[in-house]
Amino acid sequence: MDPMKKGYIRTYLMIPIYLIPLFIVATIVLYVNAGIKSGNVMLIVTICYSAVVTIAYLSEKKKITDEIIEFAAEYGTVQKQLLKNFQLPYAVLDENGRFMWMNESFSRSTQEDPSYKKSIANIFPELSREALEKIESEPVSIRVNHGDHVYDAVLQKMEFKPETEKNNSDFSIMLGGTLFSVMLFDETEYEKLKESFNDQKLISGLIYIDNYDEAIDSLDDDVKKSLIIAIIDRKIAKYFRQADAIIRKTDTDKYFIIFQQKYLKKLEENKFSVLEDVKNTKVGNDQEVTLSIGLGKDARTYSQSAEYARAAIDLALGRGGSQVVVKSRNHVSYYGVRGKEVEKTTRVKARVKAQALREMMETKDSVIVMGHQITDVDALGAAVGVYCAARELGKKCQIVLNTITTSLRPLVDKFTPAEGYPEDMFINSERAIELVNDNTLVMVVDTNRPSYTECPELLERSQSIVVFDHHRQGSERIENPLLSYIEPYASSACEMIAETLQYFSERMQLAPQEADCIYAGILIDTNNFMTKTGVRTFEAAAYLKRSGAEVTRVRKLLREDMATYKARAEVVRHAEVYRGSFAISVCQTDEVESPTIVGAQASNELLNIVGIKASFVITEYKGKIYVSARSIDEIDVQLIMERLGGGGHLNVAGAQLSGATVDEVKRKIKDILDAMIEEGEIRE
Questions:
Q1: In a domain, 684, yes or no
Q2: Same structural domain for residues 173 and 283?
Q3: Which of 156-160, 197-201, 239-243, 570-574 bottoms out in mean pLDDT, i.e. has the lowest?
Q4: Domain presence at residue 341
Q5: Residue 376 marked in a binding site
Q6: Is 251 annotated in some ligand binding site?
Q7: Average pLDDT score, the chain
Q8: Does residue 22 belong to any structural domain of this protein?
């Protein structure tokens, strides 16, 4: 009870006693002013009044107190009875989460006896002691499950401070501690309706045959050509029949599908086996037929679902094809990607992109080109190739290069004013930001992630952006470029640029040092033509050789110092072999200028060890953790790096992490490997 209210009751009871002094004062006044006779009368009245009031107070005090207590008890009983019969499940917990009391509705909902005194966490694991400790003065709602029911548990914290009414022990209270009230709102029907609503949403999808032309051209018999098309059509129709899907063929190599979202989980569980089924189609064709599928889910409208599907198929193709991409508003999921990218030998796309790049350069006054942070030889070579293209059109071109590492120094030193190159051919990020304007074309090479670029702010300041990259696309990408040429089949950005230069101008001439630089980029990214090397890679190298590239000269430019060689050897020497197939090591950064490059080289070296299927080298450099991942053909390291926040290719990938230590990253890599092996994504 409120202490102030107890004071009011006590004051009310004491009023007759408080009047006794007034009677005494009145008696004295009468003695003085009215005489002894009147004073005596008043004295008798005062004595009688005082006696009656005192006797009444002392005799009736306990009765009044008992009646108040009885009323409070009856009132509390009524409240308790109301809560007990309340249809809403209600319970009271102590500060440790143990039940103090529950009403009958709560007992029925939890199927526990009302005398149950154990922790509520035994019934609802979500309501642990840690969860209760986080509750402040405001009510908190937590979604909990029990049996087949889903509840919205509303918890209210109640704190009682010890209070004692010292003036009247009969009205004293002794309460203290913390209690929690719990109310349960049954959300089961709502959740069922919500699930039913989501299940009935329509998913739009696009299916593309990645290498239709190449697969058909490999057949010299028209009957076989018709047969393989019919088999692919039948396999696609049969697979999506389990989803009760509507399938329409929109082109010779394209399909449009619609099905309800409730079937998506079943397709995800079998990892979209149609990819492997179609890939195994053989009627005399030399090349495997691969599919790319883009699905849009959780859209508010049908048109939005179609937009998601379009974005998903673009992402699937940009990542090399032969995979399924499921895109929702805030999430992207990938399935497939177990095989090597199928090489495309046609150059039609390269020719179209070259002409588009030329047209864009012609409309601008200048070009600024940049690669990724800590620029490597491939990014530098590609940037030099762009410089040559801009020079052909008479446009000023500058390359953003914040750090010149030891591996880049011999190449950069070839582009000096003495050799006919401008002094400001290479600029830093600050200078690039000052120079960029509406008439500047910003070109990004060797990366398609804005956060990885040498100067991300340039992308925010320019509306004219071109992207040339050979890495698979991830969820993070440069938004709204005027031209995007993402070719995961290419071995390197330098290969793509070399192809582009051949179609850029018939009069294109490269100086020997320019051809050397582009050739060096191909050499590094292919690990001396041993990784991701296709027909077009050798054709690009042949073009550069004709343009003046000299293999011996390039080899001398790429030589390394003794400290770098020793550092790489130390990485290999201290490598840990995890689960018998994965080499994990750390690159020390004390004695080398370009530790990330050493880490990448060491990753390649580790693959030369018998039994190693994939290698991971972790490097801490300038406040970030860099991971270089490599494999030969059995493990898709891109999927592993994507779970770490990075990306790349089937057998060449990497990641950059902030706010983590080397040991934490090593542990994460092991956890990812364990999880993927358990899920069947990696076969030991």
A1: no
A2: no
A3: 156-160
A4: no
A5: yes
A6: no
A7: 86
A8: yes
Asked whether residue 210 falls in the same domain as residue 317, the answer is yes
Task: Compute, in degrees rounded to 10, the torsion defined by CA atoms 4, 10, 16, 22.
Answer: -50
Q: Look at residue 529 and tell me whether its pLDDT is greater than 70.
A: yes
* Residue 442, H or E segment: strand 440-445
Q: Which of 532, 557, 582 is the last residue of a domain?
A: 557
Domain residues for the domain of 95 are: 87-191
Distance, in Å, from the CA atom of 128 to the CA atom of 96, rounded to the nearest integer, reads 9
Instruction: Please state, in angstroms and rounded to a whole number, the distance separating the CA atoms of residues 173 and 200.
Output: 59
Residue 614 pLDDT exceeds 70: yes
- How many angstroms separate the most distant Cα atoms in the chain? 146
**Token pair 């051209």: residue:** 217
| Residue 54: per-residue pLDDT | 81
Cβ–Cβ < 8 Å for 336, 272: yes
Domain at 467, CATH number: 3.90.1640.10
Same domain, 404 and 374: yes
Q: Binding residue per annotation — 378?
A: yes
Rounded CA separation 582/65 (Å):
82
Residue 286 annotated in ligand binding? no
Is 446 annotated as belonging to a binding site? yes
Considering 135, 161, 191, which residue would you say is the last residue of a domain?
A: 191
pLDDT in tens, 638-651: 889 989 988 887 78
Q: For residue 168, what pLDDT is reported? A: 40
Q: Which two tokens stand for residue 277?
A: 């089924």
Burial of 368 (C-beta count, 10 Å sphere; 0-12/13-18/19+) = buried
pLDDT attached to residue 662: 94
Is residue 470 part of an annotated ligand binding site?
Answer: yes
